[in-house]
Amino acid sequence: MGASISVDHDSFATEVIERSYEKPVLVDFFATWCGPCQMLKPILEKLVQEYDFVLAKVDIDQNPDLAQTYGVQGVPDVKVVVDGQVSEGFVGVLPESQLRQLLAQLNLKSVLDEALETIYTEASLGNVEKAKSLLEDLLQHHSKNPGVILEAANFYLEVGELETAEKLLEPIQEYEKEYFVPAKTLKALILFKRSASQPGGNHELDQQFRQAVQAVLEENYKLALQQFLAIVSQDRRYKDDGARKAMLAIFDILGDDHPLTKDYRKQLTRVLY
User: Which fold does the domain 110-193 belong to in CATH?
Assistant: First the structure.
């Protein structure tokens, strides 16, 4: 975990330049009247709780000399200081994912990522109960972190606890754009995992449907879409329109821009109308 500090002209050399020889320093030049600064602040404060860097906050109105020295023309302006060298970071507000990429470029790793690596390592060694215990502890301390929730849902999906995974994903809303799409993907995979575990019936299309579901779980999406489309063509009412719904779920997994999504969405429309 890093440290968040306020810095002025008198402390800049010690708290920024000298400390940058120990760990990276992100200098956040901000102003209290700046709306984007207030948007960026909680994101940076959140990340400094996960990564081992120093967040040095400089109020440009209180320290105009520092702003001038480091070429600050608009705020927020974040500079990166490593080994005493001040370099350009970014101006404006970046999404959390891009900020994490920036920290990764500084060879910093989130303590949450390290904890998740430990959890998956334990699971891969067959210590599933220990992994679950570690994950539950992580969730308890980061219950409102969508990234942790997604990772936890994925873990429970992998170990077959589908209801737990589904419940974890419920709070993620559509306005949380960065997390809603992967949440939809996991929900789609839960759907297919659940379908794969259901006993076979006597309908003539049951075997084809199961084969299509298995193709999804093996990530053979083209074959799965071909088979589901064939089922839609034969019997739209089968499994309460299940084949069409399955195709839509695959589109969620692949994303709207994937070539298979574009192709089979058109084919599905032709079959339906």
Answer: 1.25.40
- How many residues are present in the chain? 273
Checking if the pLDDT of 273 tops 90, the result is: no
- Which residues, in sequence order, are bridge partners of residue 136? none
Handedness of CA 168, 174, 176, 177 (dihedral sign): positive
Instruction: Classify residue 85 as exposed, middle or buried by CB count within 10 Å of its CB (0-12, 13-18, 19+).
Output: exposed
Percentages helix, strand, coil for the chain, rounded to the nearest 5? 60, 10, 30
Say how far apart CA 31 and CA 16 lie, in whole Å.
19
pLDDT in tens, 117-170: 999 999 999 999 999 999 999 999 888 888 899 999 999 999 999 999 999 999
Boundaries of every domain in the chain? 3-105, 110-193, 198-273
Element (H, E) at 208: helix 206-217
CATH of region 3-105: 3.40.30.10
- Give the residue from 229, 239, 217, 231 showing the smallest Cα distance to 261: 229
Could you list the active site residues? 34, 37
Q: Which residues does 2 contact at the CB level (< 8 Å), separation at least 6?
A: 23, 48, 49, 51, 52, 53, 54, 55
